[in-house]
Amino acid sequence: MTGTEPAAHEIDTTRPHPARVYDWFLGGKDNYPVDEELGRSITAIDAGAPRAALANRAFMRRATRALAEETGIRQFLDIGTGIPTEPNLHQIAQSVGPDARVVYVDNDPIVLAHANALLRGTPEGVTEYVQADARDPRAILEQAARVLDFDRPVALSLIALLHFVADDEGAHDLVATLVEALAPGSCLVLSTMTADLEPENVHRGIAAYAAGGVTLVARSHAEVGTFFEGLDLLEPGIVSVAHWRPEEAPDTEGPVSLYGAVGRKPPR
């Protein structure tokens, strides 16, 4: 499941990659000069970009803990995992339920190169890594089913993924296919970029990414809501990731232009 074929290890260091730029925002070391260059260009336009990355990461941790503690979910499917940054999702989930089973999914060879860091879980639980493209949800489900029981609730995490997938590229079909495969009681955890809160900075940032060869999509509050149709939103609904059940008062340095929410699949 870890995609060990030689082609999977080929890393293109001539073009920036979103996962590596995100790693640079988080202060990581698993990025290249081309990624740093784009990161610095974006930060020059929007000084809050690294802060948004940190807030998004914190949202993932809080949402994972909330689902493990409050719903008892013990299965997690994280698509668009990115470069490992501790604490990783499985560390949060297995700190609550040591028997939690976690499948990570990404298509970046550099994530594969660090997959061992994602596989150090508890003896009671299972952690696995799937090398696959998010735009092929059926292949992901097929491989994940070797570890996860889709007849039982699963927490599906799409963290900072969908702003790389436009509507005309199948963003809604992608989410619908994945959610349809989940058992009642499963949850969708999602965060994605918005231009609602600081449109000028966000659109300038999108242009900077485009200049680096990366396409981004910003969605409105209503547009993000369409991904949760048929699901019951957990409180506080769709909000900036910094305001989703914060453990302390959000900072006042400025808005975080990422919406985050958690929806639960109701009983049939």
Major sheet attributes: 8 strands, mixed
- What's the number of extended β-strand segments? 8
CATH topology: Rossmann fold
What separation lies between the terminal Cα atoms? 32 Å
**Helical residue percent?**
25-40%
Order of helices and strands: HHHEHEHHEHEHEHHEEE
| CATH architecture identity | 3-Layer(aba) Sandwich
Strand content: 5-15%
**How many structural domains?**
1
Taken from the alpha-carbon principal axes, the silhouette is globular
The SS-based structural class is: alpha/beta
**Which class in CATH terms?**
Alpha Beta
Show unreliable segments.
2-8
Total DSSP helices = 10
Mean pLDDT: 89
CATH superfamily: Vaccinia Virus protein VP39
Q: What is the CA-based Rg, rounded?
A: 17 Å
Task: Summarize the topology.
Elements: H1 18-25, H2 33-45, H3 49-71, E1 75-79, H4 89-96, E2 101-106, H5 109-113, H6 115-118, E3 126-131, H7 137-144, E4 155-159, H8 171-180, E5 187-193, H9 199-211, H10 221-225, E6 232-233, E7 239-240, E8 258-264
Parallel strand pairs: 1-2, 1-4, 2-3, 4-5
Antiparallel strand pairs: 5-8, 6-8, 7-8
Helix pairs in contact: 1-2, 2-9, 3-4
